[in-house]
Amino acid sequence: MSKEMLEAFDVLEKTKGIKQEVIVEAMKAALAAAYKKNYGQAENVEIDFNEKKGDFKVMAIKTVVDEVQDERVEVSLKDALAINRAYEVGDTIKFEVTPKNFGRTAAATAKQVVMQRLREAENAHIVNEYSQYEDELVTGTVERTDNRFVYVMIGNVEAVMDIKHDTIPGEHYNPQDKVRVLVTKVGADGKGAQIRVSRTAPDVVKRLFEQEVPEIFDGTVEIMSIAREAGERTKIAVKSNDPNIDPVGTCVGPRGTRVQNVVNELGGENIDIVQYEDDPSDYIANALNPAEVIAVQFEDDEDEKKAFVIVPDYQLSLAIGKKGQNVRLAARLTGYKIDIRPESEVEFVDESDVEDEDAEAEGAVETADVETAEDNDSQVQADAEDLGTEDAEDADATDDEEE
């Protein structure tokens, strides 16, 4: 058994990359725990491994004392001196306490430890190999389905796709079907390594356009934002880093071939490609395509960005979309809360009328000032005449008195 164990350790190290030291240390810990549990031994037990013979021994570590209180952890000075004259009180001595049937225990434990280490090594291998594919589009083969997941084989590894959140409504997945999925998560938990994939993530659309449009792949055209309701409709905002290239036309492709390839891959999902603009008014107007927009007004709000969009009355239903889908996707695409209002409910003020009203108001003010000035002059003249009359009457009265 010992020889076979050594050979097994050597094979594991060569084929699985699990070093012998790792397995031996794990077995020591497992055997020590098993011995303490089965034989009621105290915590002073350790396991020794003979690398040449390949066997394990249980060693009890005892402290040299003058008077023994607990034989499991202590040894008298007299007994210690019988072993070696150099021992003193306080020294520790190892005593072999290996049970007769410990070989079978060690073999069973070795099997458990090796299996555990193999699972851990495989999990680490999966995480290391497939973490590079995270957020990337890969092609897999449907293996099986149940009530919760679609199981997809990617290479030699099984990935899971949540039916409720990660599958496109209306799509059916049969065994051996080829399917393109986005790797959303690569990690390990208590159950082992796990790869999660999706068909509904917005980045699925992004990766498909990168494959279909060379200008996106090389960075000439840039995808700025994506809003998606998988299986129904997606809005994608693009801009060009080259003034000579139309980003929308580039993504659509000759006769619409590029965007049509993406639509076909997504089972007929509608895709709106709009041009990104730095001006939020223009960007929101583009995002509401195919509806026409008359004006965009903004409301100051510290908590969220709000925009009021005015559209012609006959375009109102088109701007809102079926069940509010068009305005909902536009809001997610731009990051603004959008309130659609028909033209008939909004009062527009003509700037020329405002200027005329301001001019009339200024004229009225000037007229009022003139009238006020004339009134003041009349009042002054009247006051002067009254004052002259009073002076004359006073003079006549004075003459009468003198006479």
UniProtKB/TrEMBL annotation:
Phylogenetic placement of the source organism: Bacteria, Bacillati, Bacillota, Bacilli, Lactobacillales
Protein name per UniProt: Transcription termination/antitermination protein NusA
Region listing for Disordered, in residue ranges: 347-403
Domain of life: Bacteria
Keyword Transcription regulation: yes
Signal peptide positions on this chain: none
Alphabetized InterPro entries for the sequence: KH_dom, KH_dom-like_a/b, KH_NusA_2nd, KH_sf_prok-type, NA-bd_OB-fold, NusA_N_sf, TF_NusA, TF_NusA_bacterial
Organism this protein belongs to: Lactobacillus equicursoris
GO CC, any one term: cytosol
Functional description taken from the UniProt entry: Participates in both transcription termination and antitermination.
Family of the protein in this entry: Belongs to the NusA family.
PROSITE patterns (alphabetical): KH_TYPE_1
This protein's UniProt keywords: Cytoplasm, RNA-binding, Transcription, Transcription antitermination, Transcription regulation, Transcription termination
Residue ranges annotated for the K Homology domain, each copy included: 230-302, 303-366
